[in-house]
Amino acid sequence: MIESTARRTPGAQRSPTGTVPIPEAPGPAQASESGRGARDSAPEPATDARGVERAEARGAERAEALAILGPSVTAPRRAIVEVMLASNRLRTPEDLLREARTRAQATSLATVYRTLERLTLAGRVKRATLSSGAVGYAYCGTGHHEHAICLGCGELRPVSPCLISGSPEIEAFSVTSHVLDFYGRCDRCVAEDA
């Protein structure tokens, strides 16, 4: 591991890429990195049949994610999973850390990265680049499909079924998988910009 020559600042934590200052957990009204604020993590009310179905699906995804993490899931890991499931948008590790700390104060950036790694290896995390250039992650519990990604808020929308059927024929190359993402702006971000 390469040691960073950067000076550690008070309140900073070591990340795999160096020293990253991480502020204490924000208050509920403080905006996240995407600028959207607390409304992103508020659970949707289950007032109709579709709402109940969504709540049941989130419960099943939560149980699946916790099972992937193993039998001794800590409160910080549980908090990270809950934050990821609370909204369907890409979040940076630092954004996940800030929100997870509102649920489990002992959450560290290292725990965020280890949790993301386990979920990614299990094929349950979507990783994509945000418009800022940062890498964002979102829980994606269903099988393979493409995504539409909003450049404004990082929201993911599934594109099903997979638009590429079969393997393309490429000379002297064996295709094992593919990634196809669509980037644009969701209706909410377009309306906010108007």
Give helix % range. Answer: 25-40%
Strand order of the largest sheet: 6-5-7
Structural class: alpha+beta
Rg result: 18 Å
Given this structure, which CATH class is correct? Mainly Alpha
What are the main properties of this structure?
single chain, 194 residues, alpha+beta, three-stranded mixed sheet, two-stranded antiparallel ribbon, 7 strands, disordered N terminus
Q: Can you put this structure into words, describing what you see?
A:
With 194 residues, the protein is α+β, with helices and mostly antiparallel strands. It has a single domain (13-18, 33-193), classed as Winged helix-like DNA-binding domain superfamily/Winged helix DNA-binding domain (Arc Repressor Mutant, subunit A, Orthogonal Bundle), CATH 1.10.10. Helix content is 32%, strand content 16%. The protein has five helices and seven strands. It has helices spanning 49-69, 75-86, 93-101, 109-121, 187-193, and strands at residues 12-15, 18-21, 125-129, 135-139, 146-150, 156-159, 181-184. The strands form three sheets. Strands 6-5-7 form a three-stranded mixed beta sheet, with no helix packed on it. It has a two-stranded antiparallel ribbon with strand order 1-2. Strands 3-4 form a two-stranded antiparallel sheet. Strand 5 and strand 6 form a beta hairpin. Helix 2 (75-86) packs across helix 3 and helix 3 (93-101) packs across helix 4. The radius of gyration is 18 Å and the shape is globular. The protein starts with 11 loop residues before the first strand and ends with a helix. 22% of the residues are buried. The model is unreliable at 1-46 (pLDDT under 50).
